[in-house]
């Protein structure tokens, strides 16, 4: 099983997003990117009751699109979700830059093949500057295969 709900961007962009929220933990990825795992505590902290949810996502908090658009004024940021079990599953991704959506929302449903441009998360990572190099795809190049659950990304405290 593989489950991921996270925000991806450079450390300064994620630090601005996380602010002083004690629920937020930023984890370095390969290259210059970092990951902000969206734990249940963080989801609860950033949800804005009554606001709209992100289309195509299962766990994105209400009002988070507005938050990500605002933080993207300092650099591009992506919200990604993936859920796989037994080799089949789903992926969703959306990227904001300069306050605007520049990709997505993209969604690959269960049993659907990845589009020729790559999986939604790989396309998002490409926009964030990830080059797949000798890796299978940008997902692997960024190191997102290192942990199999969102909570596993959290550093020991």
**Rg over C-alpha atoms, rounded to the nearest angstrom:** 14 Å
How is the main sheet built? 6 strands, antiparallel
- Please report the total strand number as a whole number: 6
How many DSSP helices? 5
Oligomer: single chain
N- to C-terminal separation?
A: 25 Å
Strand order of the largest sheet: 2-3-1-4-5-6
What's the SSE pattern? EHEEHHEEEHH
Query: What ranges have pLDDT less than 50 throughout 5 or more consecutive residues?
Result: none
Shape by Cα distribution = globular
Helix percent band: 10-25%
How big a fraction of the residues is strand?
25-35%
Question: What class, by secondary structure content?
Answer: alpha+beta
**Can you give the mean pLDDT?**
91
What do you see in this structure?
By secondary structure, the chain is an alpha+beta fold. The chain has helices at residues 11-18, 40-46, 64-71, 120-127, 138-142; strands spanning 2-10, 27-28, 33-37, 77-85, 88-97, 100-108. It has a six-stranded antiparallel β-sheet with strand order 2-3-1-4-5-6, with helices on both faces. A hairpin with a 2-residue loop joins strand 4 and strand 5. The two termini are 25 Å apart. 37% of the residues are buried.
